[in-house]
Automatic annotation (TrEMBL):
It holds the Pfam family Response_reg. It comes from the Bacteria. Keywords: Phosphoprotein. It comes from Chitinophaga agrisoli. The modification 4-aspartylphosphate is found at residue 53. Residues 4-120 form the Response regulatory domain. Signal peptide: none annotated. One of its GO terms (biological process) is phosphorelay signal transduction system. This is Response regulator.
Length: 121
């Protein structure tokens, strides 16, 4: 059964690259350009996993995490944050707000895929 990943990323080039890499591993990929769009797509499509940037327009990743955790339909979906922020405070805040994983940019896709496989065996 094909697993669905919601990718929330505001940079089109990175979004396209990640989508292509994920599709190589047979994932169905849904795209969103910001947290608000991501919450909407998650409610519509109920993905198996979310990969999200933190700093993006409209609704940032922290605000999106809060909405996910307050929503009975979305709270069970694992969320991996993918961001350039490497400070321990940023990592701690993401995990406190409900992130299930944290990967810093730049990243090696193999490492991201290893984390994805923890949630989508």
């Amino acid at each position: 059964m094909t697993k669905t990943i919601l990718l929330i990323e505001d940079k089109p080039t990175l979004q396209d690259t990640l989508k292509s890499l994920l599709e190589l591993y047979q994932y169905n990929v849904i795209l969103a350009a910001n947290g608000a769009e991501g919450v909407q797509q998650a409610r519509l499509n109920q993905p198996d996993l979310v990969i999200s940037d933190i700093y993006m327009p409209v609704l940032n990743g922290y605000e999106m995490l809060e909405q996910f955790k307050q929503d009975t339909v979305l709270r069970h979906i694992p969320v991996i944050m993918l961001t350039a922020k490497t400070e321990i405070e940023e990592i701690d805040m993401a995990l406190e707000k409900g992130a299930d994983g944290y990967v810093t940019k730049p990243f090696v896709f193999k490492n991201l895929h290893t984390i994805i496989k923890k949630f989508l065996p």
